[in-house]
């Protein structure tokens, strides 16, 4: 017994030296995932100043909730606005405009506007390369009666499925899903 | 009647106890010391007793022989108290030789003979790592080459799914994770050729990166019965061993070809082993080279294909061995590489998308071999250097160094990365392990193993999206697993101390913040078991065990949407270690017609880490159901049994059943991911004929009860209906084909092409599980 014990200790010490190397841990910055941290809705009346509102998510993919809507959409009765939507990644410096990417991949994208509430109708006015609605530009027709409600903006991404010629809601992947409040003044 | 056969041994045991220590060394040489060796010889397949087997015992100036009686028993009296060589032979079976040490007292053995097949399976009687002193009383199942050959060509998980106490978490045909006694992932230890398999095992969609063709023996230890491998075997251990590299004997090889109809999978494996070259100064050398490949397309449910569930695998290993007077040494290098698809519907960008994927019919009518997005590419490379020194007086010292490099890349189907060959998750895990195990010579009636092990691990996070941060992990351990034989009672004691340090590296990008920090944990694990032969063929045991594990990095730092479930998962860096206390009772009976292996257990886990629902996370993408890793006190209770009955020599009936209930102790809420109750029945006829070889044919049924013990709060835990499946198989070994004795089998699973969804299938929210599968297997010795 003592024989083996005497020879065992140096052997154990020897193999401890083998440890090391190879395990070089690191965390590299990512930065290439598609993050949209701000959505801005702009409505321009035929005459007068444009209305603009945005929603920010300062921590992007993090668990923190998006900000409340900044800027009010106080719509005038019996007016048809020209609208645009803008998607940005403001976590980058300088901020990255994702809208241009959506425009470039128009055949695979569509922006849906769903109104809950009365008095507002949103109609896409632009199309992709194959004549299907895109929705980065649109008109917002406002009715005659005072009301309040929300416009939900869904940026839909058709990757595996073909983009349909007409649709009322997203049947592929949802890249953005935010709601803007609006009011129709007296 | 109960005790009569044991009375003489008890006397001997008592005498030895009274005589004390001093005379023992002399008694070893003393000729007349009377020891008793008895036991039973059983067939490894049918578990039936074998009569007429020749049992030989040899030692210096000694050669005794006898034959087993009708019940497979043999009895040899008046043997000297010293290590002896036991050889058992029977026509049609591979001879088996092992050393039996009678120094410490009388010995009772169960000798399992494998039916003789080609040379390779005879070799596999000895694994290539130090055998563990476990087999007697632990709830354990060993699958030898023959048992494994019936599941060849499938994932490691599929290979062990019929073992009592085992279930599977599946992501289609390509990913199968073992669940033992209701626990999975980082609560199960997988030992691959003596190394702790380190392959990001915390992820439920991360299957063990092991080539099932390169496994010669697979052992499943249920529960934390041993401290030999780590403190964290809270659920159990899956031990995968390769046969020792031969350093004597002729060159041999084998070729396996498998076909699976369901996903049109082809699998091919080729192995060659040789030996005989004696090098000056080095000794006798040998080698073994193996290659295997599996290619599969989309799996098929009864009405449609499971889109994007194919896989491609290419594996290889080279082992070189040396043996000399001082012992043996070998170098093993192996590589496992796979590319696999993940079901397209099960990869959602938002919760709305997930719900749509669940409700719209997922119909894919075209079969494809192509693997699209989402997908995983994994390569696991292992290098192992192992030396077994045979020291004087029956001491053995095993030294193992292992390096594992795991490279996991997951390709997303979202955002900017969709069209680029850039992985969203890119993790490289480097693991160095050093183990020294000393299997000491018997100290009186005490045998066992004392060891120390160290791990140094580094993880690189290189992907474009955040999954876990980079980290360094160091672990050191000391342990002893000892066995004390007291006549027909045996005590098993294991004790282990571990110190673990985990240092994470800061990550900050796109709103994800993960801080740097170091945490350390120390802990004790151990087990204490008492087993007794209550009858000639029946052994009962009770065991208590403690085990623990620190929280894994994902449990501490996860932050983001899990695309497989569209749920937001958040880690908690302050989580403490999980600690388990378990008690189990086991019963093993090996008779001439009946074999039983049964266990009941209770496992209380303090600080059990699980995903607790919290308030939803709002992002610009939409609202996600959110979960935070949290700790609770849990209890798992269950039972498992395997019964085999051979009413006629050629007819065998087997039944295997599992049941487990996992709850939070505080309020009795069920835990997630508990397997449904399951019963598998099989009827088999066996025979031998000159033309067909050793043939068998069987039919089976698997009955699964509805899983209604589910927690509230997530769509992932909806109750899941029960189901029943039929299977059938015919096989033969030693079938004469073109002058070669080949093994041939045809088996059909889900014979009736039933539509079903298993609770542990991660695709069950979207699609049915796979339908009928016709599997052909051919093995040709070269």
Describe this structure in words.
- The complex is a heterodimer of chains A (186) and B (782).
- Chain A is mainly β and 186 residues long.
- Chain A has a single domain, classed as Immunoglobulin-like.
- Chain A has 2 helices and 11 strands.
- Chain A has helices at 2-16, 99-104, and strands at residues 26-27, 38-44, 51-56, 73-75, 80-89, 96-97, 109-117, 120-124, 137-142, 147-157, 173-184.
- In chain A, the strands form 2 sheets. In chain A, strands 2, 3, 5, 6, 8 and 9 form a 6-stranded antiparallel beta sheet that branches.
- In chain A, a hairpin with a 6-residue loop joins strand 2 and strand 3.
- The termini of chain A are far apart.
- Chain B is mainly beta and 782 residues long.
- Chain B has 2 domains: 1-116, Immunoglobulin-like (Sandwich), CATH 2.60.40; 238-781, Maltoporin, Chain A (Beta Barrel).
- Chain B contains 7 helices and 43 strands.
- In chain B, the strands form 7 sheets. Chain B has a 22-stranded antiparallel β-barrel.
- Classes of the chains: A mainly beta (186), B mainly beta (782).
- Chains A and B meet through helix 1, strand 1 and strand 11 of A and helix 6, strand 24, strand 25, strand 26 and strand 29 of B.
- Strand 1 of chain A pairs parallel with strand 26 of chain B, so a sheet runs across the interface.
């Amino acid at each position: 017994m003592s024989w083996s014990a005497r020879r065992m200790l140096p052997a154990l010490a020897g193999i401890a030296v083998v440890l090391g190397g190879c395990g070089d841990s690191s965390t590299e910055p990512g930065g290439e995932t598609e993050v949209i941290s701000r959505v801005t809705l702009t409505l321009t009346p035929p005459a007068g100043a444009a209305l603009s509102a945005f929603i920010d998510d300062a921590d992007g993919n993090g668990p923190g909730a998006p900000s409340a809507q900044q800027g009010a959409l106080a719509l005038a009765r019996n007016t048809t606005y020209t609208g645009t939507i803008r998607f940005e990644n403001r976590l980058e410096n300088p901020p990255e405009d994702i809208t241009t990417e959506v425009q470039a991949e128009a055949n695979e994208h569509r922006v849906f506007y769903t109104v809950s509430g009365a008095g507002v109708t949103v109609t896409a006015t632009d199309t992709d390369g194959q004549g299907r609605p895109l929705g980065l530009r649109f008109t917002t027709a406002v009715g005659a009666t005072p009301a309040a409600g929300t416009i939900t903006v869904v940026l839909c991404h058709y990757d595996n499925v073909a983009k349909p010629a007409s649709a009322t809601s997203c049947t592929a992947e949802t890249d953005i899903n935010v709601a803007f409040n609006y009011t129709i003044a007296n | 009647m109960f005790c009569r056969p044991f009375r003489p041994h008890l006397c001997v045991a008592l005498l030895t106890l009274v005589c004390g220590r001093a005379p023992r060394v002399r008694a070893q040489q003393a000729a007349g010391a009377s020891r008793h060796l008895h036991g039973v010889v059983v067939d490894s397949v049918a578990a039936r007793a074998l009569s007429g087997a020749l049992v030989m015992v040899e030692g210096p100036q000694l050669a005794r022989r006898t034959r087993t009686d009708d019940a497979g028993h043999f009895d040899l009296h008046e043997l000297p108290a010293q290590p002896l060589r036991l050889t058992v032979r029977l026509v049609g079976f591979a001879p088996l030789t092992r050393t039996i040490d009678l120094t410490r007292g009388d010995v009772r053995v169960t000798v399992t003979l494998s039916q003789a097949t080609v040379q390779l399976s005879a070799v596999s009687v000895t694994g290539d790592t130090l055998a563990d002193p476990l087999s007697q009383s632990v709830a354990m199942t060993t699958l030898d080459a023959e048992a494994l050959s019936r599941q060849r060509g499938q994932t490691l998980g599929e290979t062990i799914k019929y073992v009592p106490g085992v279930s599977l978490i599946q992501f289609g045909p390509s990913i199968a994770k073992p669940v033992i006694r209701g626990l999975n992932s980082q609560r199960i230890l997988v030992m691959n050729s003596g190394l702790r398999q380190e392959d990001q095992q915390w992820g439920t969609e991360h299957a063990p990166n092991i080539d099932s063709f390169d496994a010669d023996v697979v052992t499943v230890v249920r529960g934390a019965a041993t401290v030999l491998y780590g403190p964290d075997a809270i659920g159990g251990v899956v031990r995968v061993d390769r046969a020792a590299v031969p350093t004597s004997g002729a060159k041999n090889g084998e070729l396996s070809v498998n076909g699976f109809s369901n996903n049109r999978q082809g699998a091919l494996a080729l192995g060659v082993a040789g030996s005989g070259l004696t090098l000056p100064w080095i000794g006798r050398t040998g080698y073994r080279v193996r290659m295997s490949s599996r290619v599969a397309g989309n799996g098929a449910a009864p009405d449609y294909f499971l889109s994007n569930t194919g896989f491609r695998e290419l594996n290889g290993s080279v082992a070189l061995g040396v043996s000399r007077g001082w012992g043996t040494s070998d170098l093993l290098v192996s590589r496992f590489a796979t590319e696999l698809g993940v079901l397209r519907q099960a990869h959602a960008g938002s919760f709305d998308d997930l719900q749509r994927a669940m409700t719209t019919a997922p119909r894919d009518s075209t079969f494809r071999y192509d693997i699209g997005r989402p997908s995983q590419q994994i390569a696991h490379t292992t290098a192992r250097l192992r030396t077994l020194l045979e020291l004087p007086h029956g001491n053995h010292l095993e030294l193992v160094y292992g390096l594992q490099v795991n490279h996991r890349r997951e390709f997303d189907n979202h955002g900017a990365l969709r069209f680029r060959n850039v992985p969203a998750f890119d993790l490289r895990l480097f693991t160095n392990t050093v183990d020294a195990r000393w299997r000491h010579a018997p100290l009186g009636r005490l045998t066992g193993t004392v060891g120390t092990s160290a791990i140094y691990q580094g993880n690189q996070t290189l992907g474009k999206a955040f999954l876990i941060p980079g980290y360094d992990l160091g672990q050191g351990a000391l342990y002893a697993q000892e066995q004390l034989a007291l006549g027909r009672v045996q005590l098993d004691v294991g004790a282990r101390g571990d110190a673990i340090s985990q240092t994470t590296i800061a990550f900050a990008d796109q709103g994800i913040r993960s801080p740097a920090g170091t945490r350390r944990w120390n802990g004790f694990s151990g087990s204490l078991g008492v087993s007794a032969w209550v009858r000639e063929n029946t052994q009962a045991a009770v065991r208590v065990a403690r085990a623990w594990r620190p929280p894994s990095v994902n449990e501490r730092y996860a932050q983001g949407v899990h695309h497989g479930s569209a749920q937001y998962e958040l880690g908690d860096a302050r989580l403490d270690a999980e600690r388990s206390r378990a008690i189990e009772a086991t019963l093993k009976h090996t008779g001439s017609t009946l074999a039983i292996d049964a266990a009941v257990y209770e496992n209380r886990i303090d600080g059990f880490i699980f995903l607790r629902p919290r308030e939803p996370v709002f992002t610009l993408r939409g609202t996600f159901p959110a979960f935070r890793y949290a700790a609770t006190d849990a209890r798992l209770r269950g039972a498992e049994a395997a019964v085999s009955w051979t009413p006629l020599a050629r007819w065998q009936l087997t039944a295997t059943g599992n049941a487990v209930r996992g709850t939070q102790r505080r309020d009795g809420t069920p835990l997630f991911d508990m397997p449904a109750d399951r019963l598998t029945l099989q009827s088999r006829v066996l025979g031998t004929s000159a033309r067909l070889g050793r043939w068998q044919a069987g039919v089976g049924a698997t009955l699964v009860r509805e899983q209604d013990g589910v927690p509230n709060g997530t769509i992932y835990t909806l109750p899941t209906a029960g189901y029943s499946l039929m299977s059938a198989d015919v096989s033969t070994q030693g079938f004469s084909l073109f002058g070669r004795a080949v093994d041939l089998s045809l088996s059909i699973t889900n014979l009736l092409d039933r539509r079903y969804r298993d609770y542990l299938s991660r695709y069950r929210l979207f699609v049915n599980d796979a339908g009928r599968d016709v599997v052909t297997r051919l093995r040709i010795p070269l």
